[in-house]
Amino acid sequence: MIDSRASRPSRRASAIFSWSMLAILVLGAGGGVWIGIRGALARDHLLAAQATVAAAGLDLGTPSEAVERLARASPDTAMARSLTSDPVWEAATLLPWVGPQLAAVGSTASAVDDAVTGAAASLEAAASAMSPAALRPVDGVVDIARIAAAAPAAAEGATRLRAAAERVSAIDRTPLLGTLAEAVSSAAAQLEAAADAADAVQRATKLIPRMLGADGPRSTLVLFQNNAEWRSLGGVVGAVAQLDARDGRLSLTAQGSSADFVAFADDPVRALPDDVREIYDTRPARYMQNTTQVPDFAVGAAVARDMWERVHGAAVDSVLAVDPVALSYLLRATGPVTLPSGDQLTADDAVSLLLDQVYRRHADPRDQDAFFQTASASVFHALSDGRADPSALVEALARAGAEHRLLLWNADADDQAILAGTTIQGALPESDAAHSAIGVYLNDGTGSKMDYYLRPSIAAAWCSDATARVHVELRDEAPDPSALPPYVTGAGEHGVPVGETLTGVYVYLPPGAEVIDHRTASDHDSAPAFAAGTHDGRPVLKWSVRLSRGRSASLDLDVRMPWTPGLDIVATPTRDPHDAPRIGTCSGEGGVVHTDPW
Q1: Which of 91, 179, 314, 320 is deepest in the core (most CB within 10 A)?
Q2: pTM as predicted
Q3: What is the torsion angle, in degrees rounded to the nearest 10, for the CA atoms of residue 174, residue 178, residue 180 and residue 186?
Q4: pLDDT tens column, 389-421
């Protein structure tokens, strides 16, 4: 189970100890000698604990090593907790002004100790079972019984960490000194990250055994997305494959391509919700290529499952989507793989080979599909044979999940519930009282592979306590179109001249948000086109933009919506990870200042 907010335990623990030390320093201005002495002693114990973790460095080999090192630090965190919770300290928390400062320090020290001591003991068994080495197949089989046995301990550890994070988050920062208020906020964020990581582990202990056939045969349909032709969740679906699992053993049982599903072009395989159909028509239910067009993976995954069953007669239990960038991450773990064609697929050239070079070599789409199928099969066999470095594999999966390049849907409602709130669920952006979430999704309208050469720059920012701004810019970096194969340019078959691109940009806003102004700029002669809709309570604005070689276009939206402490933005993952969306600041010129990926 992958969670995008998870960070390495040593880095997280080091940060927690650092802010705790800073919090203790305020005691010198806050109380008597007794409190000052105990505060200094608590500081020393926190520093000792920090040194214990830092001595191992930032890179931990396995989760079990992380838990062991945290356990070695627990005597110091326990002492710091004791020093800030004696009767004299507790009495001083009732004093005016200084009382809230001392109470905040005591509460955060207590929560840190719970995180390091209480949760570490519960997570030890889970960390061992979920270590990269334990997940490595032996003779093609993963030890799923070991993983399943760790589920109770993983759940207990995750519950303890979540409780500690909630305790610190509930501390009232209003009366605190600036430095202490920042320390408490940092504590809350770090504990939240730790809780999220533990939550990911406990979800994995539940779901991985099921998906690997612990309760009977399981089948998974894998969709390979092509980022050279954008769809909301990444790209059009090209190659597809069925993986079967039983008792921890995976096998590749069938492969196909989107060309196998043309029978549904005039007959949707299932009815789409009315709000989805009003925005995307019925295309996502008629073409396998478009099953990733709706930015809610549950919608398209169910459609892909139905299509596969009608053509191949197999009702799969799960649907998984990956893209060539995710494959390149996996190749860093497996090392290069040799294809039947003689090509060597490596982490450094996989993206260009699968999204660009293949079209220059093979003019026939059937030959292209065959190449994609052999590439994906070769990577699968490298993984199932246990060739991947375990630590590198975990890192590859974590990165792919964080970048929304790895998506999973389960037909079973209970299994699907385990994914709730994770990035690999591929759900619509969720907003709450703490975070406002915006989505920007890109869809090709050219019928080409020209998106390999388009570069997006996407950002969002708060401009006031009731206004946010969304900035989207596209730039065409294509070579001379006469040097590109017709299959790449689209050959003008869908009404877009050769060498130009047409992109539909769908901006999803939080429920209740309202666009109060928009500004566009473009080097192209055509006027921008807009459409609006609503998807599951979220306002949706569609911007259709035309571009030609070397040109760019931009859109800035000013949006009225209530301020929240957090502002998140998600976007279509492209072939370049540097295109990821950013949070910036509003500029006086009506744009968003941010770190430009260009």
Answers
A1: 320
A2: 0.84
A3: 90
A4: 888 888 899 899 999 999 999 999 999 999 999
